[in-house]
Amino acid sequence: MSTNLGAGRPPRRIIVGVGAGIAVYKVPAVVRHFVKAGDSVRVMPTEASLNFVGKATWQALSGAPAHTGVFDEEAGVDHVEAARGADLIVIAPATADLIARIHAGLAGDLLTTTVLASTAPVLLVPAMHTAMWNNPATKHNVEQLRARGIHILEPVSGDLSSGDKGAGRMPEPEAIWQRAEEILAAGQNGPVRDLEGVKAFVTAGGTREPIDPVRFVGNHSSGRQGAAIAQALVERGAEVTLFSANVDDRLIPAGVRVVETPSALQMHQAVLEAAPEHDMGFFVAAVADFRPAKTATKKVKKSAANEDGWSLEMVRNPDILAETAKAFPGLLCVGFAAETGSDEEILEFGRAKARSKGAKYIAINRVGGGLGFGTLDNQVVVVDGEGNEVLSTSGSKLEVARAIVALASGHSETQNR
Ligand code: C5P
Known about the structure:
By secondary structure, the protein is α/β, with parallel strands linked by helices. The chain has 13 helices and 19 strands. It has an 8-stranded mixed β-sheet with strand order 12-11-8-13-16-17-18-19, with helices on both faces. A 5-stranded parallel β-sheet has the order 2-1-3-4-5, with helices on both faces. A two-stranded antiparallel ribbon has the order 6-7. Helix 3 crosses helix 5. The protein is elongated. The protein starts with 12 loop residues before the first strand and ends in a 9-residue tail after the last helix. It binds cytidine-5'-monophosphate. Cytidine-5'-monophosphate binds next to helix 11 and strand 16. Cytidine-5'-monophosphate (C5P) binds next to helix 11 and strand 16.
């Protein structure tokens, strides 16, 4: 075919990454589609994929060198440029190994280095045996990549090269380029990267106030909302530190620096120390208002109680948000408040908190009725420091986090009420 589908528009820069799977035989048709459309195509095969289709084929089809390693001739200098300039990266077939490497942010070859260095939309087209596709490790990696904004064209069910039948088969080339064209047409350049160079911290989880070496006073906060805020910040390019109060490591997104701050006093000290180096602070942790006046060095025995019971003297904890906002007026502070009550009551509590804490924004989270602590869905109203309602949003914790981070970075994408 000689039709130039792209006549009249500048060539798009497409990177086609090729993994080592038998489905690679379908990929030349994808490359040809873009070449015929007048686009500039660079094929980046993994070394192992050359066992299926060699460099000569890719170079002949794309008219460009098909390097595998960062240190290949010329490639050492131009991969960052290729990554920066790309309009789309299509990876087909995306093997379980390649998916895991991209998920982990590894950069051991030219393709993974390019993915890591690029802000272009990425379309992954997984293909593998059903057992590998259904393995929890692959499922987890795919889920996480999807949450990071990477497009996934799911494998279809059918005959596999092993002779088995099941999900894992790569879709046909037409389906791949159609999806690629949709992504290009939507002009989706992935999440807005407007926080590059910005340093943000997030407090997350629930503090544990030690009574003795084995007991503490704690709360039910899971740290999910804080972890979601950290993820939304990373997606927009921020450098993120998470002050974790007992957050399960599995909830924390890749690319986030974690500082363990299990109690209010530890968090207080760490946040105040770090604040001057940061541009934004998100105070999502449920910090205990009080802590035991004394922490016993040895386990408190039952014999410490009298007949009526045992009482514990509690003293006030510092308010980390209020202190930080006051001490560092240049830091953009976003606080969170979990409230119960009617809509009006909740808003009123939040407004009072916004004024008293000196934060730029307070996100008021309705708890109870299946929303809030430990649950997946959230309903949040955001008020500014004067108590004006500026955003109302609901959805998964990640959706809510994205809306709040967008607002904080001056790009509210969610409907203002
Ligand atoms: O006063 P309240 O605990 O409802 O305020 C919640 C907000 O203040 C949250 O952003 C929370 O992380 C922050 N906070 C804090 N230090 C405290 C108590 C709350 O940073 N001691």
